[in-house]
Write a structure and sequence with these properties.
Number of helices: 1
Structural class: mainly beta
Number of domains: 1
Strand order of the largest sheet: 6-7-8-9-4-3-10
CATH architecture: Beta Complex
Distance between the termini: 37 Å
Order of helices and strands: EEEHEEEEEEE
Bound molecules: zinc ion
Helix content: under 10%
Shape: globular
Radius of gyration: 14 Å
Length: about 130
């Protein structure tokens, strides 16, 4: 029996459960993820069928491109979801999960667009795009 992974936004209006082991997350340093999250965006992709959201009507969605919408709490603004509607998976912000997540960051992506105010020095693989 799998242990459910749970999480929420900052104010608790949106809560979620994932009924699947969490894949190793990546950290995206692209301009859109930095703007939306306030820094860089660490997220894990889960099958949509494994995700249950409570308070879904408390989410707002911003279409950051034709293929992706980003979900955030309309009350507290927490960045929560990276959703390509045409796909069967959804990215969930690692910062929204309750501990323990029992996973660990795997790599950095879009490092060519990273901010100039920090270094990536954790030894994990870095991909420019
Ligand atoms: Zn909230």
């Amino acid at each position: 029996m799998l242990e459910l992974k749970t999480g929420s936004c900052l104010c608790g209006a949106v809560r979620f459960q994932v009924d699947a082991p969490l894949k190793a997350p990546d950290a995206c340093h692209c301009r859109q993820c930095r703007k939306h999250s306030g820094h860089f965006f660490a997220s894990t992709d889960v099958p949509k069928r494994a995700l249950r959201i409570e308070g879904e009507d408390q989410l707002s969605w911003y279409h950051s491109s034709a293929k992706v919408r980003r979900g955030f709490c309309k009350h507290c603004g927490s960045s929560l979801f990276f959703d390509p509607p045409a796909r069967d998976w959804i990215g969930i912000a690692m910062g929204a999960f309750d501990s323990p997540t029992e996973t660990h960051l795997e790599m950095h992506i879009f490092t060519a667009e990273k901010g100039d105010y920090y270094e990536i020095a954790d030894g994990l693989p870095q991909h420019p795009s």
